[in-house]
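Handout, section 4.2: multi-component inputs.
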Amino acid sequence: MSTVKKCIVWDLDNTLWDGICLEGDVVIRPEVQQTIKELDRRGILHSIASRGEKDVAVKILQEHKLEGYFLAPRINWLPKSTNIVRIAKEIRLSLESIAFIDDDRFELEQIAFMLPEVMTIEAQQAPELPYMSEFTLAEVTREARARRQFYQAEQQRKRAECQYPTREDFLKSCVMQLKVRSMNMDDVPRVLELMSRTHQLNTTGRIFLHDELLDIFSNRAGSMKIKVADLTDRFGWYGTIGVAITEASDARWRLLYLAISCRVLGRGIERAFLASLLRDAQNLGFDHAEAAFRDTGRNRMMRALYQMSGFRKWGKAQKSGTLIFRGAISEVPKTPSWVDVV
Amino acid sequence: MDHDIEEILWTYLRENCLPRGSKVMYDDAENLFETGVIDSAGLISFVCFIEEEFDMTIPDEDLLPEHFMSISSIAAYVRLKQKHSLVLTSQEN
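Output:
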């Protein structure tokens, strides 16, 4: 099965447009413009890795009202592999989620060799991108449609951060509000999307099916509950950025699954969400909590979250290899001071 | 006791986690999580840096508050690991 790509990195001359911009007029074909806008609408991001003079290229993009579609563009004389790695780092995507499109076979081969994780596409295929499985999503959520704006708001946050003496002052200035609530039917597409797109801040990596979620939701799966977390700050709306599945029985309270969008890394949101879930458990009368963790090779930070919150390894499921962590709720660190949980 | 380790750790945090150009000085004992300097993701990047910088492997089991809550606890952990590896190396020889 092909994986869905999250970002497409464009070459410019004879790829995004016909012609070479330093040598005269160029034309951006309507079908390429349509491709850019259609993928953007689906929440697939665009960037640029191209040789050339930035000012000249940016002017052309402005004339066509396209410059706003491209995040972290790199137009310079550095190797494209270097530029792609830097783009991935800046917009915090893994190389596996990036596709690169160029008219030059040599450049494509070079990227395929240097960065084998990156999907390479020939320029002539640009109009076909919206029909490729790698760029086709089952359902386009509100969060997906706004994805580019999220990244642009993120750039504003980065610029704002420099104005504050400490990270804590900056985080407080963001006025973050985390709303933790029970999942609704309307949330299902976004929850499924979050579960499939989240790899690092995902405690088990388990992929839930639509019907499984509905079973839990409609209480056919015993005492399990699904909670979601929405985040806003003064820069904008992040949408639903976290999902948790909990199970309460007479004897124990378990956090079976926890996933948080990597879009909100670096703000302690995972600690705020965890603290809120544990407060619920405490209100139900539990003084200890258990939490499941399965090592997926990419989610070390979730193990760190549990351990740094005072949880200790308690057991291991023989078949699945899932670890169970256990901790006293009273010892869990408080919600970060800059997050208002509502 | 020399403070090279603390210095190396702070340099990393200044370059990667604190607002650019920030002049604020923190105490080594400051809680890095409560002050928002790092979170779970920031910790993992920091741990990767420490592993490379000090040529050591940090097992997941060691990611505990007593080792990673502050610069002083991390430096103490690094020193302990270095001492252990010295013991191991001399045993091998």
